């Protein structure tokens, strides 16, 4: 009898949450509307253009093109580790691991998030930004599970 109650409870929760889940799905059009009054709204068109190029290059596995879209040194998992194009290409599979590539490919381009730190894809797997001295957007940080943060040293 307890199993039937548990199954019934789970069914009720799932059925009542489906409409809310469906309403929260981001679409290109809903995100475009959100950007009109957003904090980084002026940068949005160029950020969107950059992200579409990045997304295409990652999906095609065009590592050379991706390397050209990076600002070096590239911060990976909170550390500056990738100082040049050669090192980036050597460690590409660890920098853009399966989770990072999926975050880029599944991101609805119009739904990229932007704040004072830059723009991000996924849940912060990839960050890109432009700077005053170089108005071209570049990838500035990648958070990769394949390249974990080093352990913190204890203070003595």
Description of the structure:
- This protein is of the alpha+beta class and 156 residues long.
- The protein contains 7 helices and 6 strands.
- Strand 1 and strand 2 form a beta hairpin.
Set out the fold topology:
Layout lengths: L1 H22 L4 H8 L8 H16 L3 H5 L2 E7 L2 E4 L2 H6 L1 H4 L2 H9 L6 E3 L2 E4 L4 E6 L2 E9 L14
Parallel strand pairs: 1-6
Antiparallel strand pairs: 1-2, 3-4, 4-5, 5-6
Write a concise synopsis of the structure shown.
By secondary structure, the protein is α+β, with helices and mostly antiparallel strands. The chain is 45% helix and 21% strand. A hairpin with a 2-residue loop joins strand 5 (126-131) and strand 6 (134-142).
How many separate helices? 7
- Order of strands across the biggest sheet? 2-1-6-5-4-3
Q: What level of helicity do the residues show?
A: 40-55%
Let me know the number of strands: 6
Segments where pLDDT lies below 50 for 5+ residues?
6-24
Topology pattern, helix = H, strand = E: HHHHEEHHHEEEE
| CATH architecture tag of the domain at 44-148 | Roll
Rough shape?
Answer: globular
Largest sheet: 6 strands, mixed
Q: Supply the CATH class of the domain at 44-148.
A: Alpha Beta
Record keyword descriptors for this entry.
single chain; 156 residues; alpha+beta; Nuclear Transport Factor 2, Chain: A; 7 helices; 45% helix; 21% strand; globular
């Amino acid at each position: 009898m307890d199993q039937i109650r548990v199954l019934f409870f789970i069914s009720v929760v799932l059925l009542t949450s489906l409409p809310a889940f469906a309403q929260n799905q981001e679409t290109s059009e809903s995100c475009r509307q959100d950007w009109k009054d957003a904090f980084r709204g002026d940068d949005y068109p160029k950020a969107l253009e950059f992200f579409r190029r990045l997304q295409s290059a990652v999906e095609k596995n065009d590592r050379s093109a991706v390397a050209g879209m990076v600002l070096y040194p590239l911060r990976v998992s909170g550390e500056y580790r990738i100082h040049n194009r050669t090192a980036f290409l050597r460690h590409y599979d660890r920098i853009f691991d399966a989770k990072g590539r999926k975050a880029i490919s599944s991101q609805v381009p119009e739904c990229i998030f932007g704040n004072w730190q830059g723009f991000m894809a996924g849940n912060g797997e990839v960050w890109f930004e432009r700077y005053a001295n170089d108005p071209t957007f570049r990838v500035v940080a990648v958070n990769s599970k394949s390249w974990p943060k080093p352990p913190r040293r204890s203070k003595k």
